[in-house]
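user: Please review this fold.
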Amino acid sequence: MIAQKRGPSDKNATEEAESPKKRRTRHVVALILARGGSKGIPLKNIKLLAGVPLMGWVLRAAIDSGEFDR
């Protein structure tokens, strides 16, 4: 039996198998956890700080960072 040389057709087959991986895009989601119960400052996440709830500052910082898709 004669060994066959790998030609361009073998390379294309490999590229076709890998192409779905190349098409995938990564999505980054922010998950911000906020507890409602606090012994020191009850409901601190909705207390106003400079006219904006504390959670609003956190959300704005995440949005302005530009690192997250959702």
